[in-house]
Amino acid sequence: MAASVGVQVSDEDRRNDESQSQPCRISEEVRDTPAKNAQKSNQNGKDSKPSTPRSKGQETFKKQEKTPKTPKGPSSVEDIKAKMQATIEKGGSLPKVEAKFINYVKNCFRMTDQEAIQDLWQWRKSL
């Protein structure tokens, strides 16, 4: 005599089991898709032929020359002083050590004139 176990199966579980046992219908378009993709792609998903010819790509690269930037002339000491003053008024600060100030002026304002840099340093000390 077999004893029945008290396991209850809900209607929802029965519906899920029934839906899983039925074969799914797949349209022909969906089945054909992997075959089409296999024909188009190569290993690593790349085509063996480039989309554009190399010679044409190299020609367009050579034609796209960069336009030269207009060289900015060295700003006058007065212009640089005005810019530094505006920086201070905005809440910024300027270097307080001479070596760091010289580096700041050389890099920020692209100035190489040592006399002008010393003039700016004297002005900076007076602030």
Automatic annotation (TrEMBL):
GO molecular function: chromatin binding; histone binding; identical protein binding; RNA binding
Residue ranges annotated for the Nucleophosmin C-terminal domain, each copy included: 78-126
Gene3D superfamilies assigned: 1.10.10.2100
Compositional bias annotation for Basic and acidic residues: 56-68
Transmembrane segments: none
Sections of the chain in a coiled coil: none
Key words of the record: Chaperone, Cytoplasm, Nucleus, Phosphoprotein, RNA-binding
Domain of life: Eukaryota
InterPro entries: NPM1_C, Nucleoplasmin
Record localization: Cytoplasm; Nucleus, Nucleolus; Nucleus, Nucleoplasm
GO biological process terms on file: chromatin remodeling; positive regulation of transcription by RNA polymerase II; regulation of centrosome duplication; ribosomal large subunit biogenesis; ribosomal large subunit export from nucleus; ribosomal small subunit biogenesis; ribosomal small subunit export from nucleus
A Pfam family this chain is assigned to: NPM1-C
Main location: cytoplasm
Cellular component annotations (GO), alphabetically ordered: centrosome; cytoplasm; nucleolus; nucleoplasm; ribonucleoprotein complex
Biased composition (Polar residues): 36-55
Ranges for region Disordered: 1-79
Family: Belongs to the nucleoplasmin family.
Protein name: Nucleophosmin
Source organism of this protein record: Erinaceus europaeus (Western European hedgehog)
